[in-house]
């Protein structure tokens, strides 16, 4: 629920920030007991953030971002890295993720019935909070954020069904929630659903520890596909977006910021432009968007990808961290996984897709989880698949 926050000093604190603060106090006395492979990915992030702060132009914006990373985001990620190794950590995350999805679906349903301005509880000005005309967004800053989280939730619930409910979810948080989540997906009118949702569902099915029966597989596919088709038909959402061209213009705008940032980062991969300086890419992205020849394309003031933002702002150590995370993701993809590790893999794969092709919000904690894939590989290697 990143759109909800409490005002503290000059910035707004969201619920995930509170978890980060608690994690910092819990972890400080335990750091000496953590192993190198648990600390390495987060430690590399801290090194990258320090490098970008020192090598960049500095200023108040860079310092604010560095403080946020060091005191809130870093402890949150370290706590999650430790939780990946425990049964309670994975199942607890799964349950709260499902409960959060249920709550967002309830809010989105009200917005779908009464209009997008209904139940607009957004107050976290650390995010852009644009009007969401005829699109539901739940408790997220905008519809695309709700969309990617619901897509991951659908894939997670399907993975949980294919592996006999290892997360021990209550009946309400199983098949009915798949239907509710997919219907809400249709109401977000997010074009990413046609790209990332099929990938996540395929990964959930292919990486299942045991081959599901045809009946079960047909059931989960029907749960995922039929409500989506119904939502598309009833709302006419995607038809309108295609007819108006807004979906393509949105994708083109995202592509322009990401490609401009990656090109600039590859030309000077050492220093980066500095923390919080992602808006420097806007002019180059606007020129790139004009070159697409598709009419007026609105380019966001920043980069629509956390992955590209890190490469652009942080330089060489972000390249190293990204390469390490990609290696970890590839190792998980190639390895046979147990039931709970299967769920963990779907979460990390969803985080990678969210961070790379959907969201550029640095305060959207979920987009950072995929950098912990090397930790996940370490945990998987230390427990037998039958016990995972």
Neighbour order of strands in the largest sheet = 1-2
Number of helical regions: 15
- Unreliable segments of 5+ consecutive residues: 241-245
Helix content: 55-70%
User: Gyration radius, to the nearest Å?
Assistant: 20 Å
Total number of distinct structural domains: 1
How far is the N terminus from the C terminus?
29 Å
> Given the C-alpha coordinates, what overall shape results?
globular
Strand content: under 5%
- Provide the structure class: mainly alpha
Order of SSEs, N→C? EEHHHHHHHHHHHHHHH
Annotate the secondary structure layout.
Blueprint: E1 5-8, E2 11-14, H1 15-27, H2 36-55, H3 60-83, H4 87-114, H5 143-162, H6 175-188, H7 196-206, H8 214-235, H9 237-244, H10 246-267, H11 282-291, H12 306-314, H13 316-334, H14 339-358, H15 373-381
Antiparallel strand pairs: 1-2
Q: Characteristics of this structure?
A:
388 residues; mainly alpha; 2% strand
Brief account:
The chain is mostly helical and 388 residues long.
Describe the structure.
- The protein has 388 residues and is mostly helical.
- It has helices at 15-27, 36-55, 60-83, 87-114, 143-162, 175-188, 196-206, 214-235, 237-244, 246-267, 282-291, 306-314, 316-334, 339-358, 373-381, and strands at 5-8, 11-14.
- A two-stranded antiparallel sheet has the order 1-2.
- It has one domain (5-247, 302-387).
- The protein starts with a strand and ends in a 7-residue tail after the last helix.
- It is globular and about 55 Å long.
- Helices cover 64% and strands 2% of the residues.
- The longest helix has 28 residues, at 87-114.
- A hairpin with a 2-residue loop joins strand 1 and strand 2.
């Amino acid at each position: 629920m990143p759109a909800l926050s409490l005002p503290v000093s000059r910035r707004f604190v969201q619920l995930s920030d509170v978890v980060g603060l608690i994690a910092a106090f819990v972890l400080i006395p335990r750091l000496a007991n953590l192993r190198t492979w648990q600390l390495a990915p987060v430690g590399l992030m801290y090194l990258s953030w320090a490098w970008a702060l020192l090598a960049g132009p500095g200023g108040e914006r860079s310092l604010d971002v560095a403080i946020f990373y060091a005191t809130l985001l870093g402890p949150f990620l370290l706590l999650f890295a430790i939780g990946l190794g425990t049964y309670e950590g994975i199942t607890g995350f799964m349950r709260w993720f499902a409960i959060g999805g249920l709550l967002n679906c309830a809010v989105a349903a009200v917005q779908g019935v009464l209009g997008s301005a209904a139940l607009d509880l957004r107050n976290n000005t650390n995010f852009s909070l644009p009007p969401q005309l005829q699109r539901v967004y739940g408790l997220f800053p905008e519809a695309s954020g709700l969309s990617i989280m619901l897509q991951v939730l659908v894939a997670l619930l399907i993975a949980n069904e294919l592996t006999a409910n290892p997360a021990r979810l209550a009946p309400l948080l199983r098949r009915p929630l798949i239907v509710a989540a997919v219907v809400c997906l249709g109401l977000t009118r997010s074009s990413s659903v046609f790209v990332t949702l099929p990938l996540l569902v395929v990964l959930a099915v292919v990486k299942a520890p045991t081959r599901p029966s045809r009946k079960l597989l047909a059931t989960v596919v029907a749960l995922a596909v039929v409500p989506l088709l119904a939502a598309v038909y009833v709302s006419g959402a995607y038809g309108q977006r295609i007819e108006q061209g807004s979906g393509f213009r949105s994708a083109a705008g995202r592509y322009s910021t990401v490609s401009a940032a990656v090109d600039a980062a590859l030309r000077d991969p050492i220093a980066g432009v500095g923390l919080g300086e992602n808006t420097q890419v806007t002019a180059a992205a606007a020129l790139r968007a004009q070159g697409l020849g598709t009419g007026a394309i609105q380019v966001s003031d920043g980069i629509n990808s956390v992955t590209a933002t890190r490469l652009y702002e942080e330089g060489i150590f972000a390249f190293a961290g990204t390469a390490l995370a990609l290696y970890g993701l590839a190792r998980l993809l190639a390895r046979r996984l147990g039931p709970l590790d299967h769920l963990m893999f779907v979460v990390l794969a969803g985080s990678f897709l969210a961070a790379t092709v959907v969201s550029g919000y640095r305060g959207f904690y979920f987009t950072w989880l995929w950098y912990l894939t090397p930790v996940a590989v370490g945990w998987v290697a230390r427990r037998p698949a039958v016990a995972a």
